[in-house]
Amino acid sequence: MNPMTAARTTSPADRPQLGLRERKKIKTREAIRTATYALIKEQGYDATTIDQIAERAEVSPSTVFRYFPTKEDIVLTDEWDPILLEELRARPVDEPWPDTVRYVMLKAARMGVKDDLEVARLRTHLLVQVPAVRSRMMESMSVTGRMFCGAIAERTGRDPDSLEVRVYAMSLVGGLLEASMYWAERGHRDDFEDLLDRTLNVLEHGLPRQNPGEKP
Amino acid sequence: MNPMTAARTTSPADRPQLGLRERKKIKTREAIRTATYALIKEQGYDATTIDQIAERAEVSPSTVFRYFPTKEDIVLTDEWDPILLEELRARPVDEPWPDTVRYVMLKAARMGVKDDLEVARLRTHLLVQVPAVRSRMMESMSVTGRMFCGAIAERTGRDPDSLEVRVYAMSLVGGLLEASMYWAERGHRDDFEDLLDRTLNVLEHGLPRQNPGEKP
DNA sequence: CATGAAACTGAGAGTAGCTCTCAAAAACTA
DNA sequence: TAGTTTTTGAGAGCTACTCTCAGTTTCATG
């Protein structure tokens, strides 16, 4: 009942309940993504063309576009928005909102990173290196932001379209993105969960009085 | 000494101190932008091609690209980053940081909007309507964010590359962007300075307890 | 002025992302 | 097995964008 989540860690011969059509679709989708990741690792992002991807994935170029609207989407498509939402809804309603955010964010990070560290690293690396990917990522994060708006509204009885809620949500996703870039820029040396924790602190309480001396 | 600011409200025959070359450059730059704005108003963004812009501006298409790296940049190029920075530096060093931000942001908004309301409206309209423009805008805002990082570091003796500073800066520009979109989405009915004020409140103190009932 | 260096421009060819159409092939349904 | 729907491949076409190169204009000399 959740094709998005099923679509990721893929052992080729499970999901017997789906029709052959669906299974093939999932398979080509993965083939395209795998081919893309491989080619990017070999040649870099810009040097990798859709034709090459299509060739290695053994589909036609038009098929690639039928599965992913843009080249950036092949790398980015985040299937965790619905998961995040689900997680968000599962929290007790009387939990203070900042706590909820912290919990859900941490959980999401844990999933996204632990699930496939290689991919997470490549993604964040591209996030820093390739402007087009960064832009696309910001786009998708603003979508996530809108989702947060809905969640906040649901829980606190606010108007999801109010300026305050939208700004708050935007600063959340923006901070998360910045943390990701920071992580990648420094060669993924830091513990991502720690970065996330510090990020949420800033968003909750503003800048701390002074930096606790930290030069690597 | 500030070509960026000089480049905007343009009466054709001032700036006598610049060489002929510079004056011509500024003139074609403006011609391209004017042509673009006009065409977009007539036909919309996507339907307007570079060739059309070049034709109306009476330059060759290649020249258009020599002046603006992408089509979106013709509409967006914000010449106020340096102004903002200057304004920021002009504030007394002992002023509390949030106050400084508020002052500078308001000033910037006042400039950007009052200076040419027509253009400000068109820009924010495109911001909402055209994904490519939105992306490009986000890109440029992240540049502005880096600038803020520098300013914060300068004033507070912090490391401009620290996670905390970067997250803080990002949430600032993100909030500003969201406010702009909110403004445009609601048909520019609201007072932009008021929106900005509310935005900064959220960023400073988080979400207010409850929405003071506001349905227009 | 005149002459040479430097910058600016136009023309055109080329790449690649992306869209669209149409006919063939595959998968589901009865 | 026959018929309907979905998926696919092939290819044409559009446009943003890059690059090169020759011709012109502006600027700084002697």
UniProtKB/TrEMBL annotation, chains A, B:
Which stretches are labeled DNA-binding?
Answer: 49-68
Under Gene Ontology molecular function, one entry of this record is: DNA-binding transcription factor activity
Occurrences of domain HTH tetR-type (ranges): 26-86
SUPFAM superfamilies reported in the protein's UniProt record = Homeodomain-like (SSF46689)
From which source organism is this entry?
Answer: Streptomyces aurantiogriseus
Q: According to the lineage, what is the superkingdom?
A: Bacteria
Question: Which keywords accompany this UniProt record?
Answer: DNA-binding, Transcription, Transcription regulation
UniProt cross-references to InterPro entries, sorted A to Z: Homeodomain-like_sf, HTH-type_TetR-like_transc_reg, HTH_TetR, MftR_C
Q: What is this protein called?
A: TetR family transcriptional regulator
